[in-house]
Amino acid sequence: MTVFGLYSRYYDLLYRDKDYAGEAEHVHSLIQRHFPGAKTVLDLGCGTGGHDLTLAARGYSMTGIDMSEEMLAVANSQLSSLDPQQSTLDFFQGDIRTVRLGKTFDVVISLFHVVSYQTTNKDLTDAFVTARAHLAHGGIFIFDCWYGPAVLTDRPAVRVKRLEDDQLIVTRIAEPVMHPNDNVVDVNYHVFVRYKASGEVQELKETHRMRYLFLPEVELLLRETGMSIISASEWMTGREPGFDTWGVCFVVKG
User: Where do the Methyltransferase domain residues begin and end (predicted)?
Assistant: First the structure.
């Protein structure tokens, strides 16, 4: 089972306040700025497909890749919300470090810090090679990640999140452990799920290892894979990255 195995059952509830539509609009604006004729988009690490559904409804031909069967099951269950006459969206299982679809796309995206889940230089390089291999001529690669200067300035802290719907009450405790010599944070999740009807409580634990990145190393790794940065800005705001910028969005060309 992948790192998102059991977690995937409650993923959309835990992130129901996440503005997928607004984030997809931000991606759309970046595409229109840097490759306005783009029609096909590949999402590396699509999760439950929140961004892809919105972009497909906007008219892009979308393909989503994720390693987690459980996350893809949730994603596929939402396809009925799209009009098949106007939208194209397909999901496939695959490892973003190794998957090869045998075709190219105008845009490759990798959002919600998927790149930060690539915690070694080899993982990052392999993921970037995958993106480059699937880019059409003139295409762009858009991704976001944890930004090192901000992570070290405003260090991760213990956080508790509690959400519920008509069936469940979910409480998640996130306890971070930093590994400064590896530029990695282990986020240890302890999740309690109470079923309202029965009162039963389910408990699960997962560790998500996240790498924070710095601009010079991103530039170096991209250069080694035949790509270069067009822009780097704070996710959603477009501001210049700084010590208070935990999430940075990169637009890259092949």
Answer: 41-139
SS3 content of the chain, % helix, strand, coil (to 5): 30, 35, 35
First to last CA, the chain: 34
> What domains sit in the chain, N to C, each tagged with a CATH number?
7-147+212-253 (3.40.50.150), 150-211 (2.20.130.10)
Structure confidence at residue 17 as a pLDDT band (50, 70, 90): confident
Mean pLDDT of 228-232: 98
- What are the Cα distances from residue 190, in Å, to 2, 9, 50, 155, 199? 16, 14, 24, 20, 19
Residue of 207, 209, 228 lying closest to 218 (CA atoms) = 228
195-219 pLDDT, tens digit each: 999 999 999 898 999 999 999 999 9
Place of tokens 């029965």: 198
- What's the pLDDT at 1? 38
Query: What is the bridge-based pairing of β-strands 201-213 and 184-195?
Result: antiparallel
Radius of gyration, alpha carbons of the chain: 18
Q: What is the mean pLDDT of residues 144-154?
A: 98
| Report field, pTM of the whole predicted structure over 0.85 | yes
C-alpha to C-alpha distance for 67 and 3, rounded to whole angstroms: 10
Residues sharing a CB contact under 8 Å with residue 50, sequence separation 6 or more, in sequence order: 12, 15, 18, 20, 24
Query: At residue 50, does pLDDT exceed 60?
Result: yes
Tally the residues of the chain. 254
Angle (deg, nearest 10), helices 215-224 and 121-133: 50
Q: Provide CB contacts within 8 A for 122, sequence distance 6+.
A: none
